[in-house]
Task: inverse folding
């Protein structure tokens, strides 16, 4: 896939938290990000069996409808003691109302019947860039850590308040968006799963800064 040049880029999400994080990552590159929600694009049914498959479904749907390049993220929390659940169903565990407090309590209830601390887990982010001609490229990032209960912090969104990344004493819910997703200037790995997926995407699809 050729390098993507600055211009309008659809962020294929209706999730305000993801949109904020993607805008932060894209800001140095001079794009004009617009969300699928702002364009009135419907959310496609996520029928894929992997994070990448679902990211491709969302990116292609947005690119073909909008006639613009589209970038989609599919991400989730994979808990070792739950055999990788909730995984690609992370949002669905929160129900139609996206009640992540209830989803985190569900994880706590299920995990405590199966394992003892530390409760190891990892976040996954798959990023897909799709073009209006139907071509796409996908990238994946992961970050490993442990789960803590009760949840800590009101920053971030989703399962951030129960995820403690390895080597840190604050959960993602206790970190600002900038702390989690900013890209190190020395080229080393970013902290979050989304930052790491974005770094792989940027190396392949964006001009160097």
Result:
């Amino acid at each position: 896939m050729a390098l993507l040049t600055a211009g309008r880029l659809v962020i294929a999400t209706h999730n305000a938290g993801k949109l904020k994080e993607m805008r932060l990552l894209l800001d140095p590159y001079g794009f004009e990000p617009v969300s699928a929600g702002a364009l009135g694009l419907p959310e496609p049914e996520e029928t894929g069996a992997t994070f990448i498959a679902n990211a491709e479904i969302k990116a292609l749907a947005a690119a073909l409808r909008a006639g613009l390049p589209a970038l989609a993220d599919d991400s989730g929390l994979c808990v070792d003691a739950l055999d990788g659940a909730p995984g690609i169903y992370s949002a669905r565990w929160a129900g139609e109302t996206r009640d992540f407090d209830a989803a985190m309590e569900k994880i706590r209830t299920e995990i405590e019947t199966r394992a003892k601390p530390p409760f190891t887990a990892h976040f996954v982010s798959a990023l897909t860039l799709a073009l209006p001609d139907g071509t796409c490229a996908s990238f994946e990032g992961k970050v490993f850590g442990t789960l803590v209960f009760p949840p800590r912090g009101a920053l971030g969104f989703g399962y951030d308040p129960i995820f403690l990344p390895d080597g840190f004493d604050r959960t993602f819910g206790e970190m600002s968006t900038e702390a989690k997703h900013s890209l190190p200037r020395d080229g080393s790995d970013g902290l979050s799963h989304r930052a790491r997926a974005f770094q792989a995407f940027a190396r392949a699809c964006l001009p160097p800064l």
About this structure: The first strand starts at residue 8 and ends at 11.
